[in-house]
Amino acid sequence: MLRTFGVVLATTTLTLAGWAGTLTGAQAQPVLSATPTPTYACPPALPVSGQFLSATTTSITVRYSMLLSPPCGYDPPMTLVLFASREDATAWRNPVASAVSGPQRYGDITVEGLTPDSEYWFRFSVAEKHDPYVISGPVRTLSAASPACGATVTVDNRWTGGYAATVTVRNTAAETLDGWQVTWRWSGDERVSALWNGVLSTTGADVTVRNASYNGTLAPGATTTFGMLVWTSAPGALTLACGR
């Protein structure tokens, strides 16, 4: 009986020893499979857009919109950079002026100190990173000479809290006017609630109305009009300026 138990024990020992021998060296270490790193696909959209809004003799205003955030886009502030030629803008060389936006993802940027009656191209940059997509222009500052057009306002109807008005734009130059804009500054709490036959933009108390796509070309002496509804508690006089 003892001999039989010894044989069984010896057989078990040999079996364990053989099993242990299979877990030596590299085979004893667990094999870990690497998890693939996900690839982030950016949507097929421009990360920023810009649209020319208005100009004076020494400034240009552009409306921007930061459409995408990093890694596919940008975070504010945004820098608007002006160039004197498309070639310079394409190569990002010889910038002539720039201005920085606020902390908003969309809004208006005005570049000051420009030369009257001059063309510019604009691009955007963020924290020294140049946007590779948007190259817009030419946009032109107004001439310092006599204005190419005149604008007058007529109040058509008044009521408590506002009024309706019509602005007449006349080409006062000796040549055809291809595009116009009328600007003014509110003196109080006025605001435009509706406008037709023009394109409205505002920056604080400053208002700009540009021509619509169908009424921007005026022969010498020709006129066109746009209308607006204005809400205000105390109507003030309007001093209008008209130019290209």
Entry summary:
This protein is mainly beta and 244 residues long. It has helices spanning 2-20, 86-91; strands at residues 48-55, 60-66, 79-83, 97-100, 106-111, 119-126, 129-130, 136-140, 149-159, 162-171, 177-178, 181-185, 191-196, 198-203, 206-211, 217-218, 223-231, 241-243.
Topology:
Layout: H1 2-20, E1 48-55, E2 60-66, E3 79-83, H2 86-91, E4 97-100, E5 106-111, E6 119-126, E7 129-130, E8 136-140, E9 149-159, E10 162-171, E11 177-178, E12 181-185, E13 191-196, E14 198-203, E15 206-211, E16 217-218, E17 223-231, E18 241-243
Antiparallel strand pairs: 1-2, 2-5, 3-4, 3-6, 6-7, 6-8, 9-10, 10-17, 11-16, 12-15, 12-18, 13-17, 14-15
Characteristic key phrases:
five-stranded antiparallel β-sheet; 2 helices; 244 residues; mainly beta; 10% helix; globular; four-stranded antiparallel β-sheet; disordered N terminus
Describe this structure in words.
By secondary structure, this protein is mainly β. It is built from two helices and 18 strands. Strands 3, 4, 6, 7 and 8 form a five-stranded antiparallel beta sheet that branches. Strands 9-10-17-13 form a four-stranded antiparallel beta sheet, with no helix packed on it. A four-stranded antiparallel beta sheet has the order 14-15-12-18, with no helix packed on it. Strand 1 (about 50-55) and strand 2 form a beta hairpin. It is globular.
